[in-house]
Amino acid sequence: MKKLLLMAVAALISVSAMAIDKVQKKTTTKEITSVEELAAATFKLTNTDGQVMYTPTNWDIKVIASADFTGNGQGGFYKLEPYNGHWLIPVYENADGTTRRKFWAGDQYVNSQPAGGNVIFGLAGTNSQHGQDGKDLAVWDITYSEGNGFAFHCVGRDIYLGYDAEAARPSNSIVYWTATGKVAQYDAAEVANAYNEVKGLNMQASVKTALEAAKSAYDAAPSFGKLTTYGDAVNAAIVSSEKYGVSVGGDLTSILVNPHFNTNDLSAWNMNGKANPGVDTNNHDCEFYQADFNMSMTINGMKKGTYEIGMQAFQRPGWPGTDMYYAYKAGTCESIAQLYTTAMETDVPNIMSEASTTLLWGEDNGNHPNDSKFNVDGTTYYIPNSMQGASKWFDADHYKTTAKAVVTENGGDLTFGFKGRNIGGGWILFDNFTLKYISEEVMVDASESKKLIANIPTAKMNKDVKAAMDAAVTALEADKTNGSLYNALKDAISKANVSIEEYVVAKTALDAQKALMDATNVYDAAGFAAYKAAWDANSTKYENCTLTNEDGVVNPTAATGWHASTAYNFLLTPWTIGGQAANNFDKSLYMNTWSTEGNGDGTKFTTPFFEYWTGDDNSLADNTISTTVTGLENGIYNVSVWVRARAKNKVDADDATGITLSANGVSIDVTEGTKVGQFNIKEYTVEGIVTDGTLTISLDVKDANISWLSFKNVKYTKVAELTIEAELTNIQMQETENPLTGDMTTYVVGSDAEGNEFTFIFTNGTYVGASLYTVNDEDCEASDGTATLTLTEDGKALEATVTFTDYADFEKKFHVTGLIPYTTANMAVNADAKWGTFVAPFNVAIPAGVTAYVVEDVEGASLAMTDITEMGVDYIPAYTPVLLNAEEGLAKTDVKGFAVPRENDNPIEFGPLTGTLKPIAKVEAGKYLLQNQGGKVGFYKVPEEGTLKLGANRCYLTKPANGGDVKAFFFDEATAIKALDALTSGKAEIFDMNGRKLSKMQKGVNIVNGVKVLVK
């Protein structure tokens, strides 16, 4: 169905101008002798020693003997790109200049180091400052000296491209290079002949003026560049003469680019962000299958009038067969493809519209691979079923369609296109575009004008764009058949739609900028004020509909160029790393604006974010990333940070360790977030206390196995006052000597204003680090008291109620501040092994089904074990290494508490069992680790240092004091630990699995004194 009817045109007479062949450039390989010639070439550079400049590794540019230069993939070819009156020099892999050399920073450019450096790099040069490590370091001035060659001067550094025996290096004086390469250029005689043929023909006035100017310039002083301009002008004149020389009825198909798809050349088509069609260059047709597409072509400099675009095409809106045939005949078959111009839109024919009772191609062998067949009321019908088959139908003159196009003034543009949408089984095939000139009048149908006016967009847009569209609507309503007014409104609507999209993008960017500002309050105040002022101004313009692209609204979450974070330096400025100010271009702490993994992994951990990075096979060096906020009210503050960490070598993210977040000295681990791919990601919150108006926030890296630390959205929030009724100060804590005696833990907390000392006895069985301060109140005269704690759900103490025994009716509540750090420990028992080890810095309740033992001493070849409950406690005391036994096993469990203060960091020993709170990467030789070897659980001796590691909250066994070469300790049925000793002294009886006695242990399973022992 055609959506626009044009006025009838009188009988037309077709007379076309004789076609003139355009002049073609010829490619030659030669020595290049001018900058103009160099700009048109793909070239290599050779120094006066006969060495070629190339890029043998990832980025360093060096020189190599010409005989050793192969060119293939060596990055030794170059082109020029103009830039602000200077040149950029991109690096290519091949002499044809079709394959760019790349590295992690992007396309490579010849790029100097900053002042003081001595190497020319092949790194990216099109970032925000056009220089990898400094402004304009990839920007060059190029001159040619007759008999010497080319000199390359770095604009950003005031040095020349030089060389020595090995590498291309900067030089303070001019160094000359010879350039050779492939140059495409016109033949002067062919250009002159074509000029003589075209000069007298009708053409667009501006094209005629440019032609004569180019010829005069070349005749006056012939040069490479002027010949290029002259040849281009002649070709433009040939095309324009063909367009302007056409008479009514003339065929202009020849000016279309590849109208019959004889080649895979789609360069003239704008695909409007959609997929390219499948092109069959053997059968010269194209197809889209189950795809959305919109392809258009624009031809410039056309003669005023009305044109006809023709094509052969069909649409199959779904799966072929009888049902589609009936739907088509009933007029209910939807349309999924249209040929369109700026003046009209036409549905292309349905595949059923020309279904034939004749098989056009191939044999009807039942499978009909070429023409598809179906039966209607006893009649067999055929339709195309392949690209090759479709070409046969087109050859038989099937499936033609046309649309009218108008050009409202001489020299105007003619745009036409073909579009379709995705549907299950949808197939659209097309070929053979044509173009005819059918009238010198511009004709539009009034009904189409009404539809255009009725469907103008109404969304938010720039007010000037809307005013122009409203004026165009008014003008067309007054004269609905005026083609110029019709096209003016279409153009205004197009601009309105562009503005609408721009306003959608701007709103997204403004919202992202607001979210960036709201996500943090740690920033440089002046930089933040400037950023917010720009946001305020642009937000006002958005609301008032005066915002334009020139206002530069940038979405901070959109990945941009390398280190292109100047707009967000208000985030970076307050931070230091290792005590030094952060610098966005150093290799320490900087803002990442280019990474995109957060856009696709569901985390929305997008740019910009802080980054501390090293190579994948390295760990970050110990460092402190820190910032200090001053002028705060005293109180308790929550500090939140969104952290992403990746273990080195991209190993399992569960193995990440070594990063802590601190707020005024209170620290938490930030490497245990949700695993997303290679990363651990989580928003962490730590509680810090401000007593002097100052809050120091830091991310501390120590003994980490992290290669990539990223963080963002650093924010502090006051959550409570320091005191409720009175403030506590100057705690002094003392622990009882033996945590296994059954006595409750007692602490002396200082004295009141009169010097009276107060002792708090914590009666909840587990020390939770209550107050860090002393009661300081004139009315307190008692010498003893009992403290009970009110806890939150996560175990943090909020207030302490203190009752003094000398004054039973005196009760005072104190806000508890400065809590001892809240920590986590992990305990587990393997279900097969039934045994495990554990130690924690706080008291821990014994889980159901688990028995905890302390190893007290060595008795002969055994270790003496005691159930901890037999020692008068029903929990595992802080800093007490224990053995755990669970017949059903114990799943990996995190237990939480507040660490009991400890005077030193010495190993945590209790008897021969030693515990560790941090992982041990290399356990010393001679220690014993709990292992399950060949189904036998016991403590096995570590053979040599570095072969085994031990996790946090786990224990190892030291060598018994009674000596002997003890290889392992095993559990007997009575749960005592028996030693397998004296294996090298000949006291043990050793047998293999077949009962044969052995003189010494061998690889595999050995039976030693009746015990199975596995030797690896």
Name some characteristics of this structure:
1016 residues, six-stranded antiparallel β-sheet, eight-stranded antiparallel β-sheet, 35% strand
Describe the 3D structure.
The chain is α+β, with helices and mostly antiparallel strands. The chain contains twelve helices and 66 strands. Strands 49-54-51-52-62-61-59-58 form an eight-stranded antiparallel β-sheet, with no helix packed on it. The chain has a six-stranded antiparallel β-sheet with strand order 30-29-33-39-35-36, with no helix packed on it. Helix 3 packs antiparallel against helix 4 (224-244) and helix 9 runs antiparallel to helix 10 (525-544). The longest helix is centred in the middle third of the chain and has 36 residues, at 483-518. The model is unreliable at 1-17, 723-821 and 978-986 (pLDDT under 50).
In short:
16% of the residues lie in helices and 35% in strands. With 1016 residues, the chain is an alpha+beta fold. Strands 49-54-51-52-62-61-59-58 form an 8-stranded antiparallel sheet, with no helix packed on it.
Name the overall outline.
elongated
Tell me the total number of β-strands: 66
* Fraction of helical residues: 10-25%
Instruction: Give the CA-CA distance, first to last residue.
Output: 82 Å
Determine the structural class based on helices, strands and strand pairing. alpha+beta
Stretches where pLDDT is under 50 for at least 5 consecutive residues are 1-17, 723-821, 978-986
Biggest sheet strand line-up: 49-54-51-52-62-61-59-58
Write down the overall mean pLDDT: 80
- How much strand? 25-35%
| Number of H- or I-type helical stretches | 12
> How many strands, what sense, and barrel or not for the largest sheet?
8 strands, antiparallel
Rg measurement, Å: 42 Å
